[in-house]
Design a protein that fits this description.
Largest sheet: 6 strands, mixed
Radius of gyration: 21 Å
Strand order of the largest sheet: 2-1-3-10-4-11
Number of strands: 11
Number of domains: 2
Helix content: 40-55%
CATH architecture of the largest domain: 3-Layer(aba) Sandwich
CATH superfamily of the largest domain: Bordetella uptake gene, domain 1
CATH class of the largest domain: Alpha Beta
Number of helices: 11
Order of helices and strands: HEHEHEHEEHEHEHEHEEHHEH
CATH topology of the largest domain: D-Maltodextrin-Binding Protein, domain 2
Distance between the termini: 63 Å
Length: 320
């Protein structure tokens, strides 16, 4: 009887603590871990959504770039963090799905993270330096087939969404190229701008300004339709390679077992942010599609992650 009373007392205290958390969270700044260097699509999207969510929550969200190992270093840190809502993650199809296939000995699992909701879907782009001999996607594929292994394509690191764009292109075009790994899309793009690599696999969110300024030559967007911000950039199907489709996504996660009240507050802030016309315009200007209501649920993100893991077990079966 005494034990039962103690148990009930413990449950009551836990309920009170949970209620207190719901009422006070957040009472200090929140850290959003970005698994890549500054300048890439995930970083740009994190800054936009972090600023607006911070306003909705009444606290600052500080973005911290933790680059390396295609996001594994960052995810290790988040998985080990206290599940109190003060450390959150912006993940994507590479960090939160492909990593389990590419690096099967990682210390975390999909259950190490609690999804909050989808932020946006991203448009993959293949681009080359301006003086590259091939000027169109068809010419690039032909050049690659005539020069096996001689073209190098930069990406944001093995396991990143940009790496998956490269892998998708190679599989679709059936070509042999050299894939060059960087600590983020920003450094990869910088080397393309400097003429140190032939091309990059990137997202419109980070590379569109360089294409608009004609500092690099965009070959194709691997999506079903052209982007409003890059109306002259053909789709992969228009370029003669319809098999090259690689739409990505970004979502917010917390460490596993975060209180439901905390994830609920974060989800509400996410929805408020995505509904903001200014945020939607900024995403659209980047070539990213803001998530709709049904996509901003934990269940939807789990479904997407599980489907992507199953898909990558097939598409990434052949290692470099």
């Amino acid at each position: 009887m005494i034990i039962r009373r103690l148990t009930l007392a413990g449950l009551a205290l836990a309920a009170l603590a949970s209620s207190a958390t719901a009422q006070t969270y957040p009472d200090r700044p929140i850290t959003m871990i970005v698994p890549f260097a500054a300048g890439g699509a995930s970083d740009v999207i994190a800054r936009i959504i972090g600023e607006r969510m911070g306003q909705a929550l009444g606290q600052t969200i500080v973005n911290e770039n933790v680059a390396g190992a295609g996001g594994v270093i960052a995810l290790n840190r988040v998985a080990a963090a206290r599940p109190d809502g003060y450390t959150i993650l912006i993940g994507n199809t590479g960090t939160n799905a492909a990593s389990y296939v590419l690096t099967p000995d990682v210390k975390f699992t999909p259950d190490s993270f609690s999804p909050v909701g989808l932020i946006a879907k991203t448009a993959p782009v293949l681009a080359v330096k301006n003086d590259f001999p091939a000027k169109t996607l068809a010419e690039f594929v032909a050049y690659a087939k005539a020069n096996p292994g001689k073209i190098n394509l930069a990406h944001a690191g093995v396991g990143s969404s940009n790496y998956l764009i490269c892998k998708n292109f190679v599989a679709a075009a059936k070509v042999e190229v050299t894939l060059m790994s960087y600590r983020g899309a920003g450094p990869a793009l910088n080397d393309l701008l400097g003429g140190h690599v032939d091309g990059v696999c990137d997202n419109a969110a980070s590379i569109a300004p360089s294409i608009q300024a004609e500092r690099v030559n965009g070959l194709a967007v691997a999506a079903a339709k052209r982007l409003e911000i890059l109306p002259n950039l053909p789709t992969s199907a228009e370029g003669g390679l319809p098999e090259f489709l690689a739409e990505g996504w970004n979502a917010i996660f917390t460490p596993a077992n975060a209180p439901a009240e905390v994830t609920s507050r974060l989800n509400a802030a996410l929805r408020t942010s995505i509904a903001d016309p200014a945020v939607r315009k900024r995403f659209n200007d980047l070539g990213s599609t803001p998530a709709d209501d049904a996509e901003m649920t934990a269940a939807h993100v789990r479904k997407v992650v599980d489907a992507d893991i199953a898909r990558y077990k097939v598409t990434l079966a052949i290692k470099d």
